[in-house]
What does this fold into?
Amino acid sequence: MKIMNRIVVNGKSINCIGNNVSIINNKIFVDGKEITDEATKNCDVYIYGDVENIDCQGAVSCNNVKGNIKAGGSISCDDVGGNINCGGSVSCDEIKGSVNAGGSISM
It folds into this structure.
């Protein structure tokens, strides 16, 4: 059984199944499927659940990072099992993968 996640992009809540998020050409894709066309390039992404992969230019907030996140802004998450590369700061619990941040890293 797949778990429904709630993703909030620029204040708009989206319920979906999947946890690979990309924002490409101002469109949001989850697991390769477009779910909305209301995003902007610099949007912030909030995922209420674990995440596999995210690629966006804004900030990201989520539960556990099981894959990789590439973001232009800051990242707030629980455990990092994969890798994070971001332009801002990272606030997280445990780091098992690697974190490359343009700002500070606080655990």
